[in-house]
Sequence to fold (270 residues):
Amino acid sequence: MGSVTEGSPVPEPTDEAVFRALADPTRRAILDALFERDGQSLGEIEGAFDMSRFGVMKHLRVLEEAGLVTTRRDGRSKLHFLNPVPIRLIHDRWIDKYTEHRVSALADLKHELEETG
Amino acid sequence: MSTMTQTTVQVYNVFIKASPEQIWDAITKPEFTSKYFYGSLVESTLEPGSPFIGWSPDHAQQWTDGEVLESDPPHKLSYTWRALYDETTAAEEPSRVTWEIAPQDGGVTKLSVVHDRLEGAPKTAENVAGGWMYILSGLKTLLETGEPLGAQG
Fold:
């Protein structure tokens, strides 16, 4: 595996980029796919979605710019890894700080209603 | 050709408004690790081949075990790692943790953690996945605000 820090400096992703990336259902589904199995090639991700290679690449670029997906070379293939740290930062910065108790109570309620409903 | 095998590499990145030296200290000195790494105290001379140990906050229990593989301050630190705090993970093969520190423009440093060689440590892989997020977020907060995560509220 090559170095993750190789290449030119990359800008720090902004919160806006993270929210924008998360606003799209396909991109969220790509993150879920990487959560299920991390370190997938473009071909593998493409295979799981009914979408052109170009479409998948476009989504991956938005996710990379938001810092939610990071890539490493493994031999000849470029593998994509989920980097959930920006989501955690948003959680710590926003949810934790202001509303964790309320949000978790509502999440519990939603969970309960969906389970029983 | 990749196959549908279990994930054996995890990669995490975070950008921190701090110098590479500050980040290096935060990773290698117990007075820092105690503030973001589940309270644990790191102990290592950082010489390749020497132990890399994590102690419980009261120093009574050894939580993690390992050996330094590569130390290039303040750019790269790599060591083997085994979690002793859980019977299952303690029985697994040691994995490898690598910290890579790369300065960017504007006083920002990119910190990457690669946790790999997890082939013989599936339970460890499962355990640490959420942990690294928490640790890196806490490290960023500590270096940028001078206080541990949650201490501001």
